[in-house]
Fold:
Amino acid sequence: MATTLTRWDPFAELGTLRQMVDRMFENFTRMPLWRPSEDGLEVATLPVDVIETKDAYIVKAAVPGVDPKDVHIEVDEDVLTIRGEFAKEEEHEGYNVIRRELQYGAFQRALRLPPTVDVEHAEAKFEHGMLEIRLPKKAEARARTIRITPVVEGQHKNGAQS
Structure:
């Protein structure tokens, strides 16, 4: 039985990797920004930023044009849910919309919270169309500095001399 040896070409494998990455991005861009809600209406996914500090998690979301009274935030077990609605601009006769990229209608976002969140002390503020939710960490979960004790040469852990 004859075996044919072929020279290994690392660039051939890079081409395959590039095709895989291209397919991944094609599939990602096809993902809908809208998903069906429980009542059958379409609901927009609200983009958020989640930031971790040493003592809290901060969730930020842009909700321009929405009245703070119309934004509902709740925590059920370990899930934070933000709901609201972007009011649709009334259409008038005499003009045509060429492009519509602004979101209108209901939005919702649910985020799973880590067990280190102290939900009882969560706070939310709303300023200039930006929603910011501060979720403090439980005291036992906060970062601490650990002091290093230098070991003196010739001394064992229990303090005895050698």
